[in-house]
Amino acid sequence: MKPYVFIGFNGLFGEYADLVHALGGTIRKIVINLPVETNTGIVSFREQLDRYHLWLDSQGIRHRVEVEHLRDFRPSAADRHVLAARGLRLQPLCDYVTSNLGLEIEPLVHPTAIISPTVRQPEGIIARARATVGANAELGRFCAIGTGCYIGHDVAIGPFCDLASGVHLASGARVCHGARLGIQCTVINKVTIGEQAFVAGGAVVTRDVEPLTLVAGVPAVAKKRLAPSAVPEKVPGLP
After folding, report:
1. What is the DSSP letter of 43?
2. φ, ψ (nearest 5 deg) of residue 131
3. Into how many domains does the chain fold?
4. How far apart are CA 180 and CA 196, in angstroms?
């Protein structure tokens, strides 16, 4: 089995673990820069890891995932490296592992995802099960595409964008840097979602969304302005 190293973690750890197994891999190590007690939104990292080990036991697999702090991490050429955390605030971590550690963060694409051969897969993207990406779409580095997403032809998705499960982007739509799209929302043809905007789950977006704006409803309307995401100047947890 191919050994994978996860750098960082979030609440989708189980989903990403399933993706690795679907690709014939196993998680060898998780490299963290935050305390293991950090809450990931639903359960803590430690609880997620305990559940994963219980599942491994149920499959007769006695493997245990190593956990190592980023300050002590020395990459191995035998491993495949995945940035297992998402969002714009992770930009310093991305820069650190690619520049300081010289790592190539490869795309992580589920085998059931259908991505047009005309689409370039940049570093660090994650495409989960049954995602579809149409011809000549553009995907930004470290963007995340959720389960069952449909991305039409000639769509442009910027870096560090996060698409939850079931998002539909019609042809020519544009999602700008750091925007987030909630579960099962729809964006119609040629509509632009501005930088760091947020589209609520189930919304149907029929016109452009300004940067730093939360929209919701059918059709979607602006609900409030958002504060810019706090991007640390350096990687938290490192001196």
Report:
1. S
2. -70, 145
3. 2
4. 7
Tokens matching residue 53: 């080990």
Q: Which residue among 73, 100, 127 closes a domain? A: 100
Tell me whether residue 77 is in a domain: yes
Q: Which of 14-23, 40-49, 149-158, 188-197 has the lowest mean pLDDT?
A: 40-49
Whole-structure pTM value: 0.90
Residue 86, domain extent: 2-100
116 shares its domain with 218: yes
Contacts for 59 with CB less than 8 Å, ≥ 6 apart = none
Lowest mean per-residue pLDDT among 80-94, 102-116, 125-139: 80-94
Encoding tokens for residue 97?
């592992």
In the 8-state DSSP scheme, what is residue 33? S
Is there a single domain that holds both residue 77 and residue 133? Answer: no
Residue 40 has pLDDT above 70, yes or no: no
Q: What pLDDT sits at residue 147?
A: 96
